[in-house]
Amino acid sequence: MSESEDVESGGDKIKEGSRRHEGNRNDDSPTGDNRDVSPNDDNLNDVSPNDDSPNRPGSRHRALRDSKDFLESPIDLCINSIDQSEMIPLQWENYQSNPLFLKMTNTTNTVVLNGLYPTRFVPTLNGGPLPSPYKFVQLHFHWGERDDLGSEHQVEGEAFPLEAHVVLYKSDYGDYEIAKSMEDGIIILVYMFQIQQNSRILEFTKHLPKLKDPYSQIPLDTVSLESFLPPLIADYILYFGYMASSCKHGVFWLISRTTLAVTEAEMEDFRKISGSAGASIGHNFREIKPTLDRAIFMVNAEKDMKRVLHVLLQGKSQTAKSKGRRESKRGSRRASRKASKRSSKVAKRSSKVAKRSSKVAKRSSKVAKK
Ligand SMILES: [Zn+2]
């Protein structure tokens, strides 16, 4: 299956004057929200929070997917744009099952992990907002040239160095390619990574140096999703966004609040992966698109919703601080190297001056003797 639809070069600029959803969503009064209440014809299009019936007048309930607007992904997740929601937990089946075959490929847009499972043992997700089961297809990554960019989604304007997309298709459609053309055919689970030492993806990233060349691929030891990815069950952000307004390829995005670890060495290996022209891919994340008035939900938050995004950012700012400390140490080392170079230059120059003046002195003493 092609990855090109998913990894798009971010050509679209955020429209100027686009209405951002800030401030006004702090309004907790039910009558303060006069958005349309859409009829419930499909679970995925409508979220029915337990404590907020769509039939209640002035409810905050809104359609997840607005078919009138082709709202795109990815987006910046701002606390003011997110509503809290309670749903039945997501349920995994075969999350611990080992594929018959597992391979990793450099598609020249990204690095993809594909597994071939026995039909009855494909990892499958159900529950939560899902009307029927979704089956695992593949997992791929998005990254950038530096640690302060790389992720497709952002949190309060901050990007992460790496973002993993776990792609699943609606089992009812029978096939990923068919599901892709359907509005509710694809869901993507999102995991953000922060620079930390205890990486659980080393099992794969240790092979990245072998995938530098375009279209190269390698078979891997078969491992279950469970061995390196915490199952997404609760505590996630849910929204709908098209891949691009041109392809009309709709995706329900479920973003884990739990971040995962990636080391700086692993990030360096991602950055050496070559694109089709043979040079490094550089970055493979798309530009942030306007949030506008779309519905975004924090589902089954394990912690206070208001703190949710701040917890995400807390870890990040700690990483940034320790990086800042390293940078400042590196900076001071660089400064002292520069200073010593400068003083040795000064010393050389003054010794030249001394030599020149001694020559002048000799010459003038010769003149005096004459
Ligand atoms: Zn992706």
From TrEMBL:
Pfam families: Carb_anhydrase. Belongs to the alpha-carbonic anhydrase family. Residues 1-67, 316-370 are annotated as: Disordered. It comes from Apolygus lucorum. Residues 10-38 have a biased composition (Basic and acidic residues). One of its GO terms (molecular function) is carbonate dehydratase activity. Its cofactor is Zn(2+). This is Carbonic anhydrase. It comes from the Eukaryota. Its EC number is 4.2.1.1. Residues 45-300 form the Alpha-carbonic anhydrase domain. Residues 40-52 have a biased composition (Polar residues). Residues 322-370 have a biased composition (Basic residues). The keyword Ubl conjugation does not apply. Keywords: Lyase, Metal-binding, Zinc. GO terms for cellular component: cytoplasm. It catalyses: hydrogencarbonate + H(+) = CO2 + H2O. Reversible hydration of carbon dioxide. SUPFAM superfamilies: Carbonic anhydrase (SSF51069).
